[in-house]
Specification:
By secondary structure, the chain is mainly α. The chain folds into two domains: 384 residues, Up-down Bundle (Growth Hormone, Chain: A), CATH 1.20.1250; 49 residues. It contains 19 helices and no strands. The relative contact order is 0.15. It is a multi-pass membrane protein. Keywords: Membrane, Transmembrane, Transmembrane helix, Transport. Pfam families: MFS_1. One of its GO terms (molecular function) is transmembrane transporter activity.
Length: 460
């Protein structure tokens, strides 16, 4: 039970830092004199190092063991949160967010590795459900909580609110992790592969967020990316073991995580802004409608095991992604109406569908050997967090481009923003439906791909 509580707190607080800033962004922008392009770097400053370092973080968790890694990551995460609340300029704030992102890159795979090492197969399913439910809850509740804190105490408290979570997790850590468990591997993870992979991921994602430098950033990110791929194919000391890259279920799950996050994260980051600028709501009211997503996730989660038993994990995920896509289309259909209530059905569909994506994580971890649990967890989370960063950048690029066209055509700024948001919803829906199609096409695992806590047959 304590492991589940630790997982729940970690999932919630690391995702909360992706979403709580969304509703506070207008207040931060007014206080610090920032435009829309600068505001997205408050989110990307956290997401980019988080996503880019996750594969390396997972490999290091396997080597160092979870207790030391988690303790150091929690302390750094708390330090970054405190610095963010005290920041008085954009660059100080982004730096604090980078510190939190680096810490989260070690925190999340360390926590997810406990799914594989501390729990049996049934416990892993429950743990993955708790993890995904807390992710979705933080995704939905973050803007509402951010609005309440901004209105009552000021935007600095959207960062200070992390500190109680950090303290609680530090208390739980000694009773949920063994002090000496580390991976059986004796070689250190390859530093060159870590640097190449991280550099490529960060630069390629930044290319979407900075239209002025898209081509140079794409070129700069592609070079280390190609070198990383060539090195991984030829090297004996791979960052990502062949046992993972050769597992079709695991690699398919990575693709599903990527498409789900692309479809959801960018939309959710800009939704509170739309609610304030187009619907005329305050910071609290702008975030409250997203609570419906969390309620729908909680309500639908108990139905997930029954769906998996009847239809299998991949078809369950496919159905969930299709429902999420339908919710995004429902929002797009009513977005021209400057009222909250027509948006309720779409938000409920997004939440309910997201609950059925739980098997993306639990099934992927079931088919890897225990000694690769940290690396596998890091890669799964990297796919999700990379998709979050890409989602904010991609949907932001679509929204900004369409908004600019509408402004040039003479539309009022709120109406132009709504037009850009609708285009973003349609792009997100297309990506999510693509994920649903991928889920039904992922092949079943071969017998040699399936492992148990006692499985030692996977090759490095």
């Amino acid at each position: 039970m304590k492991t589940l509580v630790l997982l729940a707190l970690g999932a919630f607080v690391t995702t909360l830092d992706n979403t709580i800033v969304a509703v506070g962004a207008p207040s931060i922008g007014r206080d610090l004199g920032l435009d829309l392009g600068a505001l997205q770097w408050i989110a990307l400053g956290y997401m980019l190092p988080f996503a880019g370092l996750l594969p390396a973080g997972g490999a290091l968790v396997d080597r160092w063991g979870p207790r030391r890694t988690l303790a150091a990551a929690l302390l750094a995460f708390g330090l970054g949160a405190a610095a963010g609340g005290l920041a008085w300029s954009l660059w100080l704030l982004v730096t604090a967010r980078v510190v939190q992102g680096v810490a989260a890159a070690f925190l999340v795979p360390g926590l997810l590795s406990l799914l594989r090492t501390n729990l049996d197969a049934r416990g892993r399913t429950l743990g993955a459900a708790v993890w995904t439910a807390c992710l979705a809850a933080a995704l939905a509740l973050g803007p509402a909580l951010g609005g309440i804190l901004c209105a009552a105490l000021g935007w600095a408290w959207i960062f200070f609110v992390n500190l109680p979570f950090v303290a609680a997790m530090l208390v739980l850590l000694p009773v949920t992790t063994a002090p000496g468990r580390a991976a059986a591997a004796t070689r250190a993870p390859p530093l060159a592969a870590m640097v190449l992979g991280t550099t490529s991921l960060v630069l390629l994602t930044a290319a979407l967020a900075e239209p002025r430098f898209t081509l140079p950033l794409l070129a700069a990110g592609a070079v280390p990316g190609v070198v990383f791929v060539v090195r991984e194919r030829r090297a004996s000391d791979r960052l990502i073991p062949a046992a993972l890259t050769g597992n079709r279920v695991f690699t398919g799950s990575l693709g599903l995580q990527l498409l789900w996050g692309l479809g959801i994260s960018g939309v959710f980051f800009f939704t509170p802004l739309l609610h304030q600028e187009f619907l005329g709501l305050g910071p609290v009211g702008a975030g409250l409608p997203l609570v419906l997503v969390a309620v729908a996730v909680i309500a639908a989660t108990p139905l997930v095991p029954r769906a998996v038993a009847r239809h299998g994990p991949l078809r369950t995920v496919a159905g969930g992604l299709a429902v999420v896509g339908a919710g995004l289309l429902a929002l797009a259909a009513v977005n021209r109406i400057p009222d909250v209530w027509p948006r309720v059905p779409g938000l409920v569909l997004i939440g309910a569908g997201s609950a059925f994506t739980v098997p993306m994580t639990s099934h992927a971890l079931d088919v890897v050997a225990e000694r690769y649990s940290g690396t596998a967890s890091g890669l799964l989370t990297a796919a999700r967090e990379l998709s979050s960063a890409l989602g904010v950048a991609l949907i932001g690029a679509v929204l900004t481009a369409v908004r600019a066209v509408r402004l040039e055509a003479g539309a009022a700024p709120p109406v132009a923003l709504a037009g850009g948001y609708t285009a973003g919803l349609l792009a997100a829906a297309g990506l999510t439906f693509g994920g649903a199609l991928l889920a039904v096409r992922v092949a079943k695992p071969r017998s040699t791909e399936t492992s148990s806590p006692r499985d030692k047959r996977a090759v490095p």
